[in-house]
Write a structure and sequence with these properties.
2 helices; 128 residues; alpha+beta; six-stranded mixed β-sheet; single chain
Length: 128
Amino acid sequence: MQISLDNPASAPQPLSPYYSQVARIEHADGSALLFVSGQIAEGATLTEQTRGVFETLTALLEAHGAALADVVNIRTYLTDISKLDEYGAVRRAFLTGAPPTSMTFEAARLFRPEALVEVEVVAAVPAR
């Protein structure tokens, strides 16, 4: 097993130098688990921010040979849980296959004061 931490150049860069966006745990057979840090995005509305988050997640996964279809777990933090349906509509547009395991939380505040949503994922990448 080999562990590497990464901020792929092909994806938006982290908002702070104090964390890595992707932890890759590679197994001897070439399969891997990807742990992707919580992502936030710019936008005036929850819909805009959620779309930006999933676009960033897509880029981070693609940099490691994965896709949203490989996501097995997703954790979502919303500053207003009453807007879960708005978030869910965007999420369903991006996660079109079998839904991953999931947890959703309401958080009083996120990493940046303007952030309305933060999403982190775990993806299982099959051997090539």
